[in-house]
Structures are given as structure tokens and as C-alpha cells.
Amino acid sequence: MAGYKVEGMHKITLLSCQGCSMMVVIKSREDFSMNNQEMDTESLENRLSQAGGVEDFWRDNELNLREMTLADFLSKLLTQKGLKKAEVIRRSEMDRCYAYHIFGGQKENPSRDRVLALALAMELSSKETQHFLHYAGAGALYVRDHFDSVIWYALEHKLGVTETNLLLDELGLRALAL
Predict the structure, then answer these.
(1) What residue spans of the chain are helical by DSSP H?
(2) What are phi and psi of 161, to 5 degrees?
(3) Of 60 and 149, which is predicted with more confidence?
(4) 63 burial via Cβ count (<10 Å: 0-12, 13-18, 19+)
(5) What are the Cα distances from residue 97, in Å, to 12, 71, 101, 107?
(6) What is the mean pLDDT of the chain?
(7) Is the pLDDT of residue 1 over 60?
(8) pLDDT given for residue 37 in this prediction
(9) Is residue 32 pLDDT above 80, yes or no?
(10) Which of 10, 33, 49, 159 is least surrounded by Cβ atoms within 10 Å, i.e. has the fewest?
(11) Pairing of strands 21-25, 11-15
């Protein structure tokens, strides 16, 4: 019967049905738990910078590497933040039908402005918005750009779409095209 036994804090021996065993050495409990649970992007970035090679990184982090669709990403955000889709769509000031198509996966590459409107409506952080833009196939926010710096400010200060558009107008910049 397959099983395992712990031999001290850092060794696990896996036992197979044929009586053969294989020793797995885990550097620390943190390494063991990190390989078996979802990690945030920053932790993955740190692990990649310390990896011996890309293939090693892929192997060691297989459970954390996945391609999500935009609809999957939005669904995950709604769940994590406890948001209702209808309320987010209302706050985004976008056409309801179009917004539901984004959430439903029928619109895989919405315009950058529409993505930003949804990010403002969801009160995402700038970091979450960068991920959202990635999954939508849109360009990342660039703080040195005047328009983008206003959006970044609006995200950090939890401004809504209307307040953001008013601020853009006040500063002589174009409004979000919804």
C-alpha cells in the first residue's frame, strides 16, 4: 500500500506498493507548503529570479502556472472581493449587454478604456488592474503617461468612473471611452 512517513522535519520517505521507497528531501516546511498551495504573483516572481532555470521553475511551480481566460480572472476577482456582477456593471457605466459579454467570455479583448472602467468599478488596486489588463490583452498602465497616471491615482484613491472622467476633463485629458 502506498504511503509516506516523516523522518525528521525535512525528509519524507514515500513508500510504494512493491516495497520500494523513494526519499524526498524538502529544504523547509515553507518550501513544501509553497509547492502545494496557490502563491501570489510576487512570490512566483521571487522564485523565478532564484530558479536554476526556467524548466526547473515550471516543474516546481506547475500548480501555480496556468493560463486563465479573462472571464475566469473576472470570476475569481468577483469571488475574492465579494462583489456582485450586476453592481460592478452598473458602477462601470458601460453598456450592460457589452459588459455582460466581457464577464461571460464572449468579448475576450475589450478596449483598454472599458477594462479600466471595470477596474474602477471593482475598486481594484493598481496591481490588480495591471493583471486585469494583462488578461484582457491590453497595455499595462505606465505612470509616466499623463492619462495613465490619472487612472493610477483614481485606482489608489477609489474614485468611480464619473469622478475619474471629471478629473481627466479638469486636467485637459480625454475621458474614458465607454
Answers:
(1) 29-35, 41-50, 54-60, 70-81, 85-92, 96-104, 112-121, 126-135, 146-156, 161-170
(2) -65, -45
(3) 149
(4) exposed
(5) 54, 15, 6, 11
(6) 84
(7) no
(8) 59
(9) no
(10) 49
(11) antiparallel
Res. 25 pLDDT band, cuts 50 70 90: very low
Q: Closest Cα partner for 118 from 51, 45, 166, 178?
A: 178
Residue pointed to by grid coordinates 519524507: 12
Distances from the Cα of 127 to the Cα of 12, 21, 60, angstroms: 38, 45, 25
Number of residues in the chain: 178
In the chain, the amino acid numbered 148 is D
In the Cβ-directed half-sphere of 156, how many Cα atoms lie within 13 Å? 8
This prediction's pTM? 0.71
> Cell 471595470 sits at which residue?
118
